Amino acid sequence: MAIADYLSLGHGALAAGVGGELFVRGSVGLAHWARLSPGIIGATVAAFATSSPELSVATTAALQGKPQLALGDALGSNVVNVALILALTVVVSGLRLPAESTRRDLPVALAGPILTGLLLLDGTLSRFDGLVLLGVFALWMGRVLLEVRQQRSVAEEILGEQRGWLAVLLCAAGLVLLLVAGRLVVAGARSIALSFGIDAFLIGATLVAIGTSMPELATSVVSKLRGHDEVGLGTILGSNIFNSLWVVGVAATIAPIRVPGPEVELVLGFGIGALLVLILPNGSGFLPRWRGWLLLALYGGYVMAILRGRMPHG
Question: Where are the bilayer-spanning segments (predicted)?
Answer without folding.
Answer: 79-99, 105-121, 166-186, 193-211, 231-254, 266-284, 290-307
